[in-house]
Here is the input.
Amino acid sequence: MQIPHFPEANHPLVKSLFHHSDNELVSLFQKHPDAGKYFTAIFCRYSPIVYTLIQHSARSPVQADYLFALTWKHIYYELGGFNLNQNQSASEGITLQNWLINMTAYCINEMEVPATEQINYSLKSTSPPLWCYVEQALDQLPPMLRLIVLMAQTFHWSETRIAAYLQAEGEAITPNEVAIFLQEGYRMLEDKLPADLRSIYLGEQLVLPPSQ
Here is the structure.
């Protein structure tokens, strides 16, 4: 399996951060949760190492890509509490690279990856940093909007089918109202993404994360 190339590495916002040390990037990521470029820069710097480790343990390229994305999602949430200075002052002197290798090993050993035919994920259409921030933005949507957006994008249901499902659940809603809710959901979702992340990724169509 070939290590994938990620076009975002060539984006000016990401390239402008290449001179920063690991410590600086982690600190900037933690201090600026409303920005997406710092995590994206860390991802671009270390994705080859993480993917190399994963591809040797996965049974298929599809499973490798999915585990790779899940691993970076786990890294994203754990990185907020990572203290590089504290770790470096410890006896072992843990570096960010070693920490990422440990996180990857944990995900390889602990995460259950579905069979290839059950995975609805494309690494080419949804880069892991985009997935992380879209999922975070989805969590901030009102429950009804989030449900409608997920049914439309993840399950590819029509407005009519979504309305029928919601009516069966006791919601008085028409297909036209579903269409209005969808547009509002997409607008809110984009608004909740960091502005720099929209600049990096949204020259292309916004892609939602797969169902889990």
Q: What stands out?
A: DSSP finds eleven helices and no strands in the chain.
